[in-house]
Amino acid sequence: MASGIPVPLPPLQKMDCATPVSILVFGYGSIIWKQEFEYTRSFPCCVAGYRRVFFQGSTDHRGTPGKPGRVVTLIQSSEPNSFVAGVAFELPPDAAKREEILAKLDHRESGGYVREEVKLYDISTHEALNIAEGTLCLCYRATEENSEYLGEATEEVIAQQVADCAGPSGPNSEYVFKLAEGLRALGVEDAHVFTVEREVRRILGQGAAR
User: Fold this and answer.
1) Which of 60, 80, 93, 167 is least crowded, fewest Cβ atoms below 10 Å from its Cβ?
2) Active site residue 109
3) Residue 53 — pLDDT band, cuts 50, 70, 90?
């Protein structure tokens, strides 16, 4: 299993490696609450060396080409001991089913995201998880090089854009609210996400999250 900064991976059938014993998909955004794929188990965990930020544009789910929404991606962090919490989902053992699920995820995340291998850590202790040998741990991450990357902005600017956007998957604000709700359910503190959520609620005239 890879450690450190992940690298983009080709489709499984094109990888020069043995068939994985197990495949874990790490979700840090919408996958936390909206899987839309079959899995055998899930557990909270985190990845190291990143920040979760609303720097990625969305023209296919939470916005349109003329008015892109903002969704989260992972960017490298210069801060020591920087961890991003989320949920890992283990895919079914059947190889054909795995390929079907990953193909659907590839399509779902086609708006600038690439599939990468990551190392998973305990959500509480931040120690490396004892993952079975032969397990492939994946996540989808949008890098600065993709055409829909919007880049850094203040949380107030991000919130204004979120409040004003919607796409085929629904309002951009719903994405923010559900992500914040999912993180609270995990007991996770994420200042960036919660600040954007608070600003969006203020703009829309909604009360604080319960």
Assistant:
1) 80
2) yes
3) very high
